[in-house]
Fold this sequence. Notes:
This protein is mainly α and 73 residues long.
Amino acid sequence: xxxxxxxxxxxxxxxxxxFVHHRISRGYGPRRIIDELRQKGVNDEVVQEYIDExxxxxxxxxxxxxxxxxxxx
Length: 73
């Protein structure tokens, strides 16, 4: 991993950004995403850059996923 980081081929920030975007699009909430990132060894500081649990957009994003899966209600 150290060699990959040195070569610029592995970046926690890029990974985290992509991972968070993908999980949000699948309907995962902030707690679950944070737990998964911690299990993958991502530093809490990096996690906090990409996830703000108090952001009101979480509800809107999850409603979009629900509507896409189950139709408008």
